Amino acid sequence: MALLTGWASFLVAVATIGCIYGLLTLGLNVHYGYTGLLNFGHVAFFAAGAYASAIVTMPPPSTVTNASYEIWLNLPMPLGFPVSLAAAALVGGVLAFLIGLTSVRLGTHYLAIATFALAGVFSDVLVNEAWLTNGSFGMNSVPKPGRAMLTADEWQLAYLAFAALSLLVTYLVLERLVNAPFGRLLKGVRESEAAAKTLGKDTNAVKLKSFVIGGMIAGFAGGIYAHYLGSVVTAQFVPHVTFTVYAAMLLGGAASNTGAVAGAFLVIAFEESTRFITTAYNWIQSTLPEALSGVLPALFGPLPNNPSFIPSMRFVVIGVLFVLVIRFRPEGLFGDPAEIQALGEEED
Amino acid sequence: MVFDNLLQTVVFGLIEGSVIAVGAVGLTLSYGVTRFINFAYGEFLTYGAYLTVFLAAGVFGMSLPLPVAAVVALVLVGLLGVAVSRVFFEPISDRGALPLLITSIGVSFILRNLLQGWIGVSAKQLPIPLMRRQEYFGVRLTDLELGVVVAGVVTMLLIHLLLQRTMLGKRMRATSGNRSLAEVAGIDTTNVIRQTWFISAAAGALSGVLYAVLFAPFRPGVGFEYLIVIFAATLLGGIGRPYGAMLGAFFIGLAMNFGSTYLSANYTRAYAFIILVGVLLVRPEGIRGGEF
Fold first, then answer.
1. N or C: where does chain A have the smaller number of CB atoms within 10 Å of the terminal CB?
2. Does residue A215 belong to any structural domain of this protein?
3. N- to C-terminal Cα distance for chain A?
4. A340 touches chain B (CB under 8 A)
C-alpha cells in the first residue's frame, strides 16, 4: 500500500524537518531574540540531544555492524521514547549550562567566538570519542518508535503529527514564558544590562537561565531528529546548521516565536526544493521551442558539472538572505521593529 | 632525545605561530577601525591560497612563478576585501556591531560557496616540491618552513613600521581610537577604513598561502575551519590590538603543537581554545591590555 508517493512523501519529509528546525529556531530565539545573546554554537546543543537519544536507545554493540561504542541502554520502544527525549533535552540543557558558565558574561564578540569555538571543540569530541559516539561512522540503529506497529507511510505521518505537536506545545509554553515577568526580565537584559543591574537583577544568572532553556529546546529537537532518521552521524552537525537556524530566525523575525516557526519552514522548504533545480532547468530547456533553445545556456552558461554545485548555491542563497534581511528588513517577516532596534546597539 | 623533541616542538609551534600571527594581525587591524569581528575573514585565507594555485597553474591563461603568483593573489584578495567592504559593510556601518557581525556570516557563506560551486570540493595543493629536512642549530627544518617563519616575521615588522612610522598608520590608529574625533581632525576615515580593509584582506591571503605551504593540500573550507584558531589568537591578544594578536598567535601555535605532541593529536583546535577560555576567565580583555 503506497499511500505516499512522490510529492506527498517529499512534503511530509520536508514538514517533519521543518518542525525540527522550528524547535531549533525557537531555542535560538530565546538566546538571541529575547536575551540578545549571540550564540554561534547552537548546533552543539542539537548534537548533544541527538547523541543522548541515540545512546539511551541503541541496541547492544554486538548486534550492530561496525560498532565501537561502549555505552548503551537499549531502552525498549515505544515506552522508552519519552525517556529518550527527556534525556535529549536534559543533556542539551547541561551542555548549555557548561558552555554558558564560561561564556555568558563575555561581551558580544567574545561570546560569539567562544560559543562558535566551543561548538567546534564539541564536534571534535564527537568525532574522536568513539567509545561514546561510535566516531565518524555514527550510530545508525537508533530505533524509530512505533515503527513495528505501523506501515512505512503511516509511521511517516504519525511521526510528523508528533513533531508538529511537540512544536506547538513548545511554542505555546514559550509564548507564555516571554510574556511572563521572566520574559520581560530577558528583554530587560537585552535592552540594557546596566539598567537591569541597577534594579538589582543578577544579569549573568538571567543569561545563564536563558542559555539553558534554549539549549534544552535544541537538545529536545536533537532527540526528535535522531528517532526520525534512525541514525546520528557527526557530519550532520556542522556549523552550517547553526547558521541555517540563524537564517530562519532572522527571516521570520528575531524576538518573535511565530516568526521563528515561519522562518524555519520557509528556509527548510527552500533548501529542500533546491534539489529540483537541475530537473527544472532541464525540463524548461526541453520544453522550449527549438528557436529559443539557445537562450538559457547563453544566460546561465552550462551549469558546472560538479556534484557540489547545487548544495553550494543553496548556501550562497542563504548567505544572500542574511545580507538582505539585515540590510533591508531587520525585523524580518513577523518581527517588531521596536524590539529589533535594541539588538543592534552595543554597550561598551 | 627528550630535549631534542622539546626543542622541535617549540620550533613547530613558532612556525605555525607565524601563520596564525599574519592572519590574526590582519583580522585585528580591521576590527580596530570597523569595530566588528569579521566572520568572512577565513575566506580571504581560502581565496589567497586558491588564487595562488590558479595563477601558478595557468588557470587564467598564463602561469606565473609561484612567488609572483602569491604576490598577485595578495593584491587581488586585498581588492576583494575593499570590494566586500563597500558592497556589504559600508551601507550598514552606522547600525552597530551586531548587524555587521551577522552580515559577515552571510558574506562568508557567499564567498565560500561560490568558490566551492565553481571548483568542487576536491583538494588542491601548491606546486611545491617535497623537501628534505636540514639541520639548523640542532633543529630539523625544511627551507620552506624556514621561509614561512621569515615571511611571518617580515610581515610583523612591516605592520609595525606601517603603524608607527607612516601617515596611514597614524590615521589608522586615530580612526581606531576615536572615529568621530579623527573625522573632526580632518582625517578621511572612510578612506582609511578602505585602506585598512585592503591590508587586512591581503594579510589574510598571505596567511592562507603560508598555511597552504605548510599543510598542503586544502579544500574550499580551509579558511573557515582555521578561523577558530585565528580567532583564538586575536582574542587572546585582546581584539583590535595588533601587538597582542602577534603575541597571542605564538602562544596558540605553541599550545597546539605541545598538545598534539604530548597529549593527543585529535584535539589540536581544542588546545588553542582551552588556553583562550582559561585566559578569558581571568582577564576578559585578553593578555595585552592598553591601546593599539
1. C
2. yes
3. 64
4. no
Q: Cβ contact (<8 Å) for B95 and A344?
A: yes
Q: Which residues fall within 8 angstroms of residue B215, CB to CB, at 6 or more apart?
A: none
Whether residue A117 is contained in a domain is answered as yes
Residue ranges per domain, chain B? 2-127+138-282
Cα distance from B93 to chain A (closest Cα, Å)? 10
Could you list the residue range(s) of the whole structural domain that residue A62 is in? 10-344
For chain B, state the CA radius of gyration.
Answer: 19
Identify the architecture of domain B2-127+138-282 in CATH: Orthogonal Bundle (1.10)
Contact: A326, B116; criterion CB under 8 Å: no
Per residue in A147-158, pLDDT (tens digit) is: 888 888 899 999
Closest chain A CA to residue B84: A323
What stretches of chain A show up as alpha helix (H) in DSSP? 6-29, 42-57, 80-103, 108-128, 130-133, 152-178, 181-191, 193-198, 203-229, 239-252, 257-273, 277-287, 295-300, 309-328, 337-344
From chain B, pick out residues whose CB is under 8 angstroms from the CB of A314.
113
Q: Find, among B113, B96, B38, B102, the residue nearest to A247 by Cα.
A: B102
Q: In chain A, how many domains are there?
A: 1
Quickly count: other Cβ atoms within 10 Å of residue B140's Cβ.
14
User: Does A4 reside within a domain?
Assistant: no
Q: Which residues on chain A are in Cβ contact (under 8 Å) with B248?
A: none
Rounded Cα distance between B183 and A82, Å, is 61
pLDDT number for residue B290? 43
Kindly list the residues from chain A whose CB atom is less than 8 angstroms away from the CB atom of residue B114.
Answer: 312, 316
- Interface confidence, given as ipTM, is 0.87
Q: What is the pLDDT along chain B (292 residues), one digit of tens a residue?
A: 566 788 889 999 999 999 999 999 999 999 988 888 899 999 999 999 999 999 998 877 778 888 999 999 999 999 999 999 999 999 998 888 888 999 999 999 999 999 998 888 888 888 887 777 777 777 778 888 889 999 999 999 999 999 999 999 999 988 888 888 998 988 998 999 999 999 999 999 999 999 999 987 899 999 998 998 999 898 888 887 888 899 999 999 999 999 988 888 888 888 888 887 777 777 766 655 444 4
B280 vs A110, A321, A323: nearest CB: A110
How close does chain B come to A161, measured CA to CA in Å? 33
Predicted pLDDT at A149: 87
Residue B33 touches partner A, C-beta closer than 8 Å = no
Q: Is A2 a member of any domain?
A: no
With an 8 Å Cβ cutoff, is B278 touching chain A? no
Task: Report DSSP state, residue A139.
Answer: B
